From TrEMBL:
InterPro entries: Cyt_b561_bac/Ni-Hgenase, Di-haem_cyt_TM, OxRdtase_Mopterin-bd_dom, OxRdtase_Mopterin-bd_sf
Descriptive protein name: Cytochrome b561-like protein
Keywords tagged on the record: Cell membrane, Membrane, Transmembrane, Transmembrane helix
Positions of the Cytochrome b561 bacterial/Ni-hydrogenase domain: 100-317
Organism from which the protein derives: Saccharothrix carnea
BP GO terms, sorted: respiratory electron transport chain
Length: 575
């Protein structure tokens, strides 16, 4: 067999920057203000929350002021002034390490939140079930999905202003994810150090409700704050109960929930930990992850406001200078830390556009080890049944428009030949009849697109294991390149590279059928790859060739796939 020259059809440019032609020159598109679905198809614009919150605040203040006139409420506040007693031997004051921890936490949060919103903007809809059916979302930042079969998930993505998103540009999710996951790793390390120090120094007693007294005290503080006659602060020694509860929720509930819901969106973990993922579906995880973000945003606004309005100098000395005085030292350090944060905030997007490869390298260095740890999975099918099949399955990518493909398609792919070659003992060309005569493999599995949507389908065809047995890869073969008939969003055909060991997984297959019918055109007819341990972009559609190689640095742009070369995705992407 003569080896096909598919490599020559690839775009071999080594992109160094994010330019105007980013993601195939996708024009900016700003979506709509976030809205939440009420009932079947009415939508509530969340911008209304701004005047509503103001209104409720005014009402709340009036009610609280009225309450404080009542003798019974006055007695209640006297009995529960605001803080519950700490156990004997509780540490006094706030140690210096807490200041550092606090700064690093806040600093990392900037990048985590900005890049997280960019990830959300790539599929600006949230659902409760793993079916990402248009119209079933509970929140959207985009118009309703048009009734157009050519409308792809990529077309649905929206732009964020550069200083808000990280990076922000439309469909910059590849880079946003390096920031998000990379900063997450550092944030988690910081968090673990924080937990360890909390528990070894005894500081934890200040953050954990230890008696039911916390509840009436928190209520009392809430009334005092709202009535604008505030409790006396004693934050150096003991937080008031409302403060304690909000810190407890943030440190011991929201932060772990961020981690768990974050991991709940990854194919590697979801295909591995069935028990968890059958309840915590990717979309439930994504929705909860978003609600955790909302908690953090509200917390940050209220926290900073109260720090600055309840004795700013003293409070800043507590956190930044480890003392309880009224000097300007804490303020000075705080101001300096603000400068650092603002500079980093402003620089992050332009630096990312100028050095995307560096961002990718650092991001991969941080998250790669964890990713590889969870990638060694070999789940079996059988977790989903036909009942789970999604009524709607988003389509993605640019459909093939070559003459070659058009002719094949017009003739029901009778002349289609899949070339399987490279570092193998027995290179072959397989027609559809050949593929259909091989042992049939099928599985009902869930697709995870990097953008965040998901869908369950039944895939039928040939296990990659069967193909490997037929062609017999040589020992030098380490990677498997899948070439598509279709172009990518920019120049050159779409391709992706997979680690050879993943080709033997039970759930790695060449699909010829989807939900019992021959693969529809938009989903990759006549042949597409499924590798369920990875994100969707790695599952090349409209496959025309499979090449076994020892190294992919000279294939295309050298980064292991079309989206890697053009948009700096990772060549392994299981989280
Ligand atoms: N040839 C080709 N294959 C591709 C793509 C593409 O753009 N071109 N997009 C990928 C992405 S990002 C996803 S999520 C899945 C989508 O598969 P579906 O359209 O069947 O849902 O296909 C993958 N395979
Ligand atoms: Mo995707």
């Amino acid at each position: 067999m003569r080896e096909p020259g598919f490599r020559r059809e690839l775009d071999a440019r080594r992109h160094q920057r994010v330019g105007v032609d980013w993601a195939g020159g996708l024009p900016a598109q700003y979506g709509v203000a976030p809205r939440v679905r009420v009932g079947r198809d009415r939508w509530f614009n969340l911008l209304w929350l701004i005047p509503l919150a103001f209104l409720f605040l005014v009402i709340g203040i009036a009610v609280a002021k009225g309450l404080r006139e009542l003798p019974s409420v006055q007695r209640f506040i006297e009995a529960h002034p605001g803080d519950s007693e700490l156990p004997a031997g509780a540490p006094v004051g706030i140690p210096a390490w807490l200041g550092w921890q606090h700064f690093l936490n806040a600093f990392l949060m900037i990048f985590i939140i900005r890049s997280g919103i960019t990830v959300l903007a790539d599929h600006p809809r949230l659902y409760w079930t793993r079916n990402s059916t248009p119209g079933s979302e509970w929140l959207r930042m985009q118009k309703p999905v048009p009734d157009d079969p050519d409308y792809t998930a990529k077309a649905d993505s929206i732009t964020l202003p550069d200083g808000v998103g990280l990076p922000g540009r439309r469909h910059s999710i590849g880079l946003a994810r390096w920031w998000h996951l990379g900063a997450d790793v550092l944030w988690l390390v910081n968090g673990v150090v924080f937990y360890v120090l909390l528990f070894t120094t005894g500081q934890w007693v200040r953050l954990v409700p230890l008696s039911w007294e916390v509840a009436p005290n928190a209520l009392s503080v809430a009334i005092q704050y709202l009535s604008l006659d505030w409790p006396t602060e004693n934050g150096w020694n003991n937080y008031n109960s409302l403060q304690l509860v909000s810190y407890f929720v943030t440190v011991f509930i929201a932060a772990p929930a961020a981690l768990i819901t974050g991991l709940g969106m990854s194919p590697a973990l979801s295909t591995r930990f069935h028990r968890v993922s059958s309840v915590l579906s990717i979309q439930l995880a994504r929705s909860l992850h978003f609600l955790v973000l909302c908690w953090f945003l509200v917390f940050i606004v209220v926290h900073v406001t109260l720090v600055l309005t309840t004795g700013a100098l003293r409070n800043l000395n507590h956190m930044y200078a480890a003392n309880d005085s009224g000097t300007w030292v804490g303020f000075g350090i705080f101001a300096l830390s603000l400068v650092v944060m603002v500079v980093a905030w402003v620089a992050a997007t332009p630096v990312t556009y100028r050095h995307p490869r560096l961002v990718r390298r650092i991001g991969y260095a941080l998250i790669g080890p964890a990713q590889r740890l969870f990638e060694h999975i070999d789940s079996k099918a059988g977790r989903y049944t036909d009942k789970d099949i999604s009524p709607f399955f988003w389509a993605n990518g640019r459909v093939p428009d070559s003459e070659e493909y058009r002719v094949l398609r017009a003739d029901d792919f009778r002349d289609y030949r899949l070339a399987v070659y490279g570092l193998v003992e027995n290179p072959v060309e397989l027609g559809l009849e050949d593929l259909r005569s091989m042992p049939y493999h099928d599985q009902v599995t869930q697709h995870f697109c990097i953008q965040g949507w998901s869908g369950v389908a039944r895939w039928g065809g040939v296990s990659m294991s069967t193909v490997l047995d037929l062609v017999r890869p040589r020992p030098e073969a380490k990677w498997v390149v899948f070439y598509s008939f279709a172009q990518g969003s920019d120049e050159g055909i779409y391709y992706d590279v997979h680690a050879i060991e993943q080709m033997r997984y039970h759930l790695t297959m060449l699909a010829l059928d989807m939900n019992g019918e021959p693969l529809p055109f938009r989903h990759g007819a006549p042949v597409r790859l499924r590798n369920e341990a990875q994100l969707g972009f790695k599952m090349v559609k409209w496959v025309k060739g499979i090449e076994f190689v020892d190294d992919f640095s000279s294939v295309g742009g050298g980064l292991g796939g079309y989206n890697n070369d053009h948009e700096f995705f990772g060549y392994r992407q299981s989280i």
